[in-house]
Amino acid sequence: MFRKLHDPGPSAVTILIDGHPVAAEVGESVAAVLLRQAEGWNRTTPVSQSPRAPYCMMGVCFECLVEVDGQGSVQGCLTPVRDGMRITRQQGRRSLSA
Amino acid sequence: MRPDIIVIGGGTVGAAIAYGLAKRREKVLLLDGDDGDFRAAQANFGLVWLQGKGPGMPAYQGLTRRSIDLWRGFCDELEASEQTNLVYEQNGGLAFCFGEDGFEKRRLDLMRLHNQRGEGEPDWEMLDRAALQKLMPRAGLGPDVSGASYGRRDGHVNPLRLLAALHGALLRHGGSIRHKARVERIDAAGSEFRLHFAGETLVAPRIVIAAGLGSPALASQVGLDVPVRPERGQVLVTERLAPFLPLPASGLRQTGEGTVMIGATKDNSGFDVSATADAAAGLSRKTVRIVPALADVRLVRQWAGLRIMTPDSYPIYAQSLTRPGAFVALCHSGVTLAAFHSEVLASAIAAGALPDSLSPFHQSRFDVPQAA
Q1: B241 close contact with A: CB closer than 8 A
Q2: Which terminus of chain B, N or C, has fewer Cβ atoms within 10 Å?
């Protein structure tokens, strides 16, 4: 549904989404990168397990929660990407250790 | 419908008594206050708790035991009536200890309570750190945790569903509820009671005052002098987590939905129900000392409620001497005692007299002159 308008060129970095390498650009948010994936969802809800995608993109709605480098329930829209960052789509209730 | 009895106060205490009266075929009217009232029942932590309760007051330990004996049946009946799940679990509960001194102090405190009880086998045991960690393998314990006391009969429940079920079951047994009906004044109508609220009056032969912190002003109008003060308690709640805490603990419990409730502070700030950053910091520090991994979990809400506190913290149950037919019931453990209120206390009120076993809870215990 979403695609990037320009080639990031030298500011391209690689992040891992559920273990798969994905190209991103320095300055982008985790949520923006997730939205342009073929599977645009980032988590399933703790109650009904329904899939959710980033929504407000400004830190308010908490729909974009993902696991970042082992830390659960991070707001993807407020988190800039970093080379080598590991993103895991969050399934249901997070565990205490993530 | 002219009520046989009016219960003033629609919180967990008043609703449990009203439900118990309705089950005994009394025509009950429950008068609930309005949303601006303090409503301790909606700030409750949800423990159904025995261990550690009642130092120096064996009658209170006995009362608590009696209620917990009744709780499973009480819960089953409410759930069947209201087709709801109160998420009541009674698999035991924990009180965490820090350091060897803390462990030993807890053991002595519980042993003292056991000796004050003066009968039966202990229904608690001390778990050392290794046994405790084995019990909760998914939550790594902080280095200061030396163990916990484990009370076999402790448990927890969803306190909001309990309150809703009590209201529902009251209606189903033929009782009625009036909301936004804060009683302003009580005067005599012959030997009966005339209640004034929201521009209306109602007359009933018997009344029960269970209006929490609003009770003293009402009780004094029917010859009952009940000293209570507010004690603020603050609670934090986290995002929903996969189950990691198999048993509730005093001050830390994981609900059926997965949220973790963290409580509770005790402070005297009059009728101030604001939540404070100090309390959030203190509760967080205490909790992270128990389970360090909770430091990375999101808090989603903090709130404060006001406990109904008597001078010795124990309940007041009494009937007026000068205006028989007027009863008062006040306490801060409305959830633990709910089964007792609806079964034993309601039955006594329906019969018209409180039993001698409740005499330790008469407010006359506060009339003793202070020693010089």
Answers
A1: yes
A2: C
Q: Which CA distances in Å does B153 have to B11, B244, B262? A: 25, 20, 21
| Orientation of helix B159-172 relative to helix B12-23, angle to 10° | 30
| Residues 6+ positions from B341 with CB-CB distance below 8 Å | B13, B16, B17, B20, B67, B329, B334
Backbone angles phi, psi at B337, to 5 degrees: -90, 0
Q: Are B47 and B181 members of one domain?
A: yes
On average, the pLDDT of chain B sits at 95
Pick the closest to residue A29 from A67, A91, A82 (CA basis): A82
Q: Is A45 helix (H, G, I), strand (E, B) or coil?
A: coil
How far is it, in rounded angstroms, from Cα A96 to Cα B242? 7
Domain residues for the domain of B180 are 5-82+158-227+313-366
- Burial class of residue B321 (count of CB atoms within 10 Å of its CB; 0-12, 13-18, 19+): exposed
If you average pLDDT over residues B302-317, what whole number do you get? 96
Query: Would the CB atoms of A94 and B241 count as touching at under 8 Å?
Result: yes
Asked if B327 contacts B319 with a C-beta cutoff of 8 angstroms, the reply is: yes
Distance from C-alpha of B274 to C-alpha of B19, rounded to nearest angstrom: 32
* Chain A residues touching B301 at Cβ < 8 A: none
Q: Scanning every residue of chain B, which has its alpha carbon at the shortest distance from the alpha carbon of A98?
A: B296
Residues B123, B268 within the same domain: no
Interface predicted TM-score (ipTM) of this complex, two decimals: 0.84
Query: Could you report the per-residue pLDDT of B214-223, keeping only the tens digit for each?
Result: 999 999 999 9
pLDDT classification of B343: cutoffs 50, 70, 90: very high
pLDDT band at A97 (very low <50, low <70, confident <90, very high): confident
Q: Do B296 and A92 touch (CB under 8 A)?
A: no
Total domains in the fold of chain B: 3
Assign B363 to helix, strand or coil. helix
Torsions phi, psi for B209 (to 5 deg) = -95, 110
Give the pLDDT score at B266. 95
Provide the chain B residues 89-148 that lie in CB contact (below 8 A) with chain A: 138-139
Q: Classify residue B88: in a domain, yes or no.
A: no
Question: pLDDT tens, B50-84?
Answer: 999 999 999 999 999 999 999 999 999 999 999 99
B134 and B283, same domain (yes or no): no
Q: How far is A37 from chain B (nearest CA, A)?
A: 27
B293 to A96: CB separation less than 8 angstroms, yes or no? yes
Residue B158 in tokens: 């969803």
pTM score of the predicted model: 0.93
For residue B314, the 8-state DSSP code is: S
- The tens digit of pLDDT for each residue in B264-291 reads 899 999 999 999 999 999 999 999 999 9
pLDDT digits (tens, 9 = 90+) for B16-29: 999 999 999 999 99
